Amino acid sequence: MNPKFSLWALSWPIFLELFLQTLLGTVDTIMVSHISDGAVAVVGFSNQLFNALNTLFMTIATGAGILVAQRIGMKREEEARTIAIMAVTACASISAAISLTLYFFSAPIAGMLNVSNELLPLWNVYVSNIGAGMVLTGLIAVLGTVIRNTGNTKGPMFIGIGMNVVHIVLNYGFIYGAFGMPAWGLFGVTVSGNLSKLFAAVLLLYMFVFAFERTVRLRDFGIFKLKLFQQILKIGWPLGVNMSCWVFSQLAIYAFLADLGDKELAARTYMNTLESFCFMLGGAIAAAAQIQIAHLFGAGKIRDAYAAAYRALWVGLAFVAVSSILLYLFGRPALGLFTKDGEIVAMGVSLLALNLLLQPGKMLNMALGNALNAVGDTRFTMLASLGSMSIIATGCSYWLGLELGWGLIGIYCCMIADEYVRGAMSFFRWRGKKYLNKGAAQPVPARLEAAVPL
């Protein structure tokens, strides 16, 4: 195997990027908490909305990324280059439309999501301004995804680190009025966020220009090949539905928490930040495994691709178990960094034991789900997500959390059940080797088309 496609070479830059991003995101949350717990609740809730809208362009970005890795494995780099260029153009157009919608319609969206009157002024400030920068978010997502799938995970890592450092420094200035900057509070958070994204988007675009053997020119962004774009959509739209299921279930859960109260909403936001530390290494391994398996599958190394999924799963489970135990032991003082509200801290502490069950389920689901996606079996993961997330993650959360009065504990139990159900389905699907066997029976040039669900 090309050394740059080994699991370690792919995963450690992704992990370092996620770690520093999460660490700086935690500092960001602490800074926002100094404004108010209400500001934290708004940031946490609105981020679920942004995640939901991200799926509109991540459908194309993720599908294109898998195809780029497969085509490079097939030694068809020119087609990989064309796929990447079309993906960047499409994602930029979609995210620009989202930016305009959020900027002009933040208040009506708040009404649809049951945002309380107390939080509405903060919501309008944050959503309209961060929403205006969604075009930058779209560019960062597609450029970073494509570049990583060429085997270069270090470049996006360094840019991601730089983006978050710039964001934290500007946050400090605009929230507290440091360095001679105006003390703008939550509005300052939106300004620093958009400026740091602009910094990252420009650097990623420069890196993308030289990501392939043939330099990408400005006129190349007018390229459109229908057959290749159809393949992006065929492999991408189930991924988009899959991602949509997750983010909309999370958005629904945050809406349920908003009904329970602002403190429950803040507690979930703080716990979500801490849980990110638990899973970041597991998530990096799962993301790296998807790139590696797609490359191996494209190169015709079917047995290696099959074994790579299990190797990633076991390595990821070991790291996730250790990090979950550490959070369980040190979760209370960690929550105290975010808020001094004893009720919010108590809610968060009550979830620490449940997190020990949640994280291994997430690793099982992501490692094998990503493996299925890497070989083109995206329709199965879509159907699994549609069924489990709509019935268990969302429906049962409403039933247990609101109707039966279990509150935050009931919602967490449903989240755990959803991860294990989807993980078990992915395990048996991967063990059946349906798409791997189909790929083994095809000559290399036809393998990609055979793997794309029709």
From TrEMBL:
Manganese as UniProt keyword: no
Superkingdom of origin organism: Bacteria
UniProt GO molecular function: antiporter activity; xenobiotic transmembrane transporter activity
Signal found in the keyword field: no
Cellular localisation: Cell membrane
Annotated TM spans: 49-70, 82-105, 125-146, 158-178, 198-216, 237-257, 277-297, 309-330, 342-359, 380-400, 406-428
Lipid bilayer topology: Multi-pass membrane protein
Principal subcellular localisation of the protein: membrane
Any one Gene Ontology cellular component term annotated for this protein: plasma membrane
Swiss-Prot/TrEMBL keywords: Cell membrane, Membrane, Transmembrane, Transmembrane helix, Transport
NCBIfam families per UniProt: matE
PANTHER family listed in its UniProt record: MULTIDRUG AND TOXIN EFFLUX PROTEIN MATE FAMILY, NA+ DRIVEN MULTIDRUG EFFLUX PUMP
Stated name of the protein: MATE family efflux transporter
Lineage: Bacteria, Bacillati, Bacillota, Bacilli, Bacillales
